[in-house]
Amino acid sequence: MKIGYPCLNRGIGCTANSTFRLANYSASRFLTTVQNNLSCLRDILRYNIDHGLLFLRISSDIIPFASHPVCTLNWRKTFNKELAGLGKLIRAHRMRISMHPDQFVLLNAQRQNIVDKSVRDLDWHCRFLDSMGMGDDAKVQIHIGGVYGDKPSAIDRFTRTYRRLPLFIRRRLVIENDDRLFTVRDCLDIHRTTGIPVLFDNFHHACHNDGESLRTALRQTACTWKTTDGPPMLDYSSQQPGARRGKHAESIDIDDFKEFLRASRGWDGDIMLEIKDKEQSALKAVELIRKAAAGSPRIRQ
DNA sequence: AGTTGTCAAGCTAGT
DNA sequence: ACTAGCTTGACAACT
Fold first, then answer.
1. What is the C-alpha separation between A273 and A294, in angstroms, rounded?
2. Chain B: bases < 7 Å from a protein Cβ
3. Chain C nucleotides covered by protein, CB below 7 Å
4. Yes or no: domain A3-292 corresponds to CATH 3.20.20.150
5. Which of A90, A86, A48, A92 is nearest to A278 (CA)?
6. How far out from the chain centre does Cα A299 lie?
7. A114 beta carbon < 7 A from strand B?
8. pLDDT for A212-241, tens place per residue?
9. Where are the domains of chain A?
């Protein structure tokens, strides 16, 4: 079981998701920004290796405006050496990588223009992972999209668009249940017709579900991942006390996490902690799991 | 130096 | 028909 945190490390003193305003775009600004982001990504990977955090989500800002028409530079060629080096480091330590394009990627949009832009965005995410030499277990996670007043049609549009995607995108794409529109059951329906793996988000499931228990949802989503996809990925979070329902916690609620681990016994996968203080909570989670492993008696063969 | 509004992109719910 | 909220970090313009 690998533990990770998304996109940025708050203590390391650099960010791998530095960007700029589109109005300020220039080739040199783009190149220095990407150079700095890749360099910081190496620092983050080093930190994670040293601290036993072997799961990382890389920010979509690593290559700013990568799918925008303004971006005509061949960044994969320019940074070929850096990207290959990062990939080598990741593979040497058997780290798991994910990416999560944001809410504007909508494969089931009604407007073709939006679908096209979304595919372009998935395209660069997958090429980025390809250029680091990542295997099929490095995933790009998205939500289903909008409902547009008719969920069956929205699901059908998703399915038809998915089937037309090139293989280098399909091999990486996974879908995640969201907190308002598409539940685990909806995602499983799409899995049945497409084979796409379902990434389970425990917090979204708590906000919006069809009555399944956590264990049932874990079991059902886990078996959507083929061997080549790697172990199932999972987004874990809990409610920030006193805040709006659906607001992610500032810091890990270690009792809630313990309870989650107990409830998920038998489930095996990699956990992404979607918690505001990032690596601090991830370190606590790793510590907890280490202690639990050390404290529990070895199972006799 | 610190604070506040804004940022490429879209959907939904509420007015 | 229109707008606020989503959810979020960082940029950029302003004190």
1. 22
2. 7-13
3. 6-12
4. yes
5. A48
6. 33
7. yes
8. 999 999 999 999 999 999 999 999 998 888
9. 3-292
Question: Cα separations (Å) of A96 from A31, A129, A156, A195, A264?
Answer: 27, 11, 31, 21, 20
Q: Is the CB of A32 under 7 A from strand C?
A: no
- Measured N-to-C along each axis, helices A279-295 and A254-263 cross at an angle, to the nearest 10 degrees, of 50
**Kind of pairing between the strands at A3-6 and A270-273:** parallel
Strand-pair partners of A4? A55, A272
Single pTM value for the model: 0.95
> Is nucleic acid strand C under 7 Å from A220's C-beta?
no
Which residues lie below 8 Å from residue A54, measured CB to CB, with a gap of 6+? A2, A3, A4, A48, A93, A94, A95, A96, A270
A106 touches strand B (CB under 7 A): yes
- Candidates A5, A110, A109; CA nearest to A47 is A5
